[in-house]
Amino acid sequence: MVSLYERNMSVRKLTVALVAALLAVLAAAPAPVQAGLFKISKSREISIGRDFYRSYRKEHKYLDNTPEGARVKMIGQRLVQRGGLTDYTYTFTLVDDKEVNAFAVPGGYIFINKGLYDYIAYDEAMLAAVLAHEIGHVHERHYKKMYEDALKAQLGILAVGIALGGRRGQQAMNVLSTAGNLVFLKYSRDDEEHADWWGVRLAYLAGYDPYGMSRSMKLFMKIEGKLGQLELFDLLRTHPDPESRMERTKKLARDFSGHEQIFYHPPQPPSDNPLHEKKVRIIKLD
């Protein structure tokens, strides 16, 4: 299980990588773009995503040349093609990381950790749903607004801290940073629900069991203590309640397909999987 220290270090590394990528893009931008400092175009999103992809690879092993990595890419591209998405050139990457997590960055770069992959690999519909969920975030450009708003907030907080100076400035920055988290909470829940909709829809369009998303929510409830706490660009937000998401995505699957879950004959989880349920023995009494 990942320690709190390791998670904090991971958050710090991700934040540094993102800030570096953003500053590099802004520094190379022409004057008109710099004038709109908080506005990020689609081409800039792609630049930020590409820079992060290259930077992240320096500290994390990408499992592209493995059967598992190839499978992730195959499923991801099938979702994109069957969904008719042409907005980005999507890149799907399996990362050699034990933390249970999946995330996306602007420009079509989608990552899933081996820690999560191992839990859902037996059920391709679940794997497809998780990837489709992340595709939804990218396609809807959820991160664009979050990125712009977060940048505005952080620069504003920095300005207050500098103005006050010293210990008072640091205290003010800490208080404002905490309060700022609440501002983004509603948007994050809306975005997560929207991404869930894409997760169910794209999986169904690609020919997968659309109930895979609701099963993944059930899994997340089972392993809540092991879930990654640093989904990229989710640092300022929390996820909606998994149980309500499970019920909502079940309804979405039913609405899209017109079938109940049993119609798709979902695979039996392996015995070491948290979703595995022992068969109940019925004892007949004479």
Keywords, please?
single chain; mainly alpha; three-stranded mixed sheet; 10 helices
Summarize the structure.
The protein has 286 residues and is mainly α. The chain has helices at 4-28, 31-35, 42-57, 67-82, 114-120, 124-139, 142-164, 166-205, 212-222, 242-257; strands spanning 91-95, 102-105, 109-113.
User: Using only CA atoms, what is the Rg?
Assistant: 21 Å
The helix/strand series, from N terminus to C terminus, equals HHHHEEEHHHHHH
Structural class: mainly alpha
- SS elements, strand count: 3
Low-confidence stretches: 1-9, 31-35, 159-164, 175-187, 230-238
Proportion of residues in β-strands: under 5%
Globular, elongated, flat, extended or rod-shaped: what is the shape?
globular
Number of domains: 1
Q: What's the helix count?
A: 10
Question: Level of helix content?
Answer: 55-70%
Largest sheet: 3 strands, mixed
How confident overall, as mean pLDDT? 76
Cα-to-Cα separation, first versus last residue: 49 Å
Strand ordering within the main sheet? 1-3-2
